[in-house]
């Protein structure tokens, strides 16, 4: 299988693995970011489950299951393209991984921004909302302009996050391959090492992304805001005035709880596909 097609398929498998494992805590993150009514991630889980049933934590999963698979297929393809532009071979340096990771945001944001807008609107809703209904409401409110709400802040978030994501993964996997417990028979990191490196990448990628993700979510779910940073009523100015820097880190507990298993599953699915293709 050609390299580009291989990255698309493997990236899609990684994205699907991430969604299945991580979506419940993603719902918790969105609800905590969109509302001040939750004391902790556990409180959000209990309150949501009691009021709407435990399956409410999977609300809106169909959209990201398809879209996130596509996004990660594009993400890994963009990353590989970025490495080729930098003249990097199969094992990039940490710097090359960071630059190629940032470049991958150009591939992912055109899909990521509208699908996250729909997902966040559905996750915030307390009643049953279908993808068709959410899409119809947005389209009726402003067509393509309404569906692109939050595009710029999503691009900024994904460029910063992906730079850290891939740099952390490359460095951690390389270092773990030197440890016998994490090294496979072929000298590369074993799947245990891949899971550990993926978990580390998932945690670290959120360090620069959390404030931007918070502003994006607030802007996308509340149509009264005029922008994430600019306009008559920007999210950033209002949140910083009310809560200071602490305000833009709301939902952090759910983010990090989700990051470890979801990203371990993502890179596990990705590496499993790549290694299967390499041995086919």
Characterize this entry briefly:
This protein is mainly α. It has helices at 3-34, 41-52, 62-85, 94-103, 105-124, 131-147, 151-176, 191-221, 235-243, 252-279. The longest helix has 32 residues, at 3-34.
Task: Give short descriptive properties of this protein.
10 helices; single chain; globular; mainly alpha; 75% helix; 280 residues
Beta-strand share of residues: under 5%
Distance between the termini: 9 Å
Overall geometric form: globular
H-E string: HHHHHHHHHH
Tell me the structural class: mainly alpha
Number of strands: 0
Described by strand count, sense and barrel closure, the largest sheet is: none
Count of helical stretches? 10
Question: What number is the mean pLDDT?
Answer: 83
Over all CA atoms, what is the radius of gyration?
Answer: 19 Å
Question: Could you state the oligomeric state of the chains shown?
Answer: single chain
Poorly predicted spans: none
Helix content: over 70%
Keywords: Membrane, Mitochondrion, Repeat, Transmembrane, Transmembrane helix, Transport
Subcellular location: Mitochondrion membrane
Main location: mitochondrion
Organism: Aureococcus anophagefferens (Harmful bloom alga)
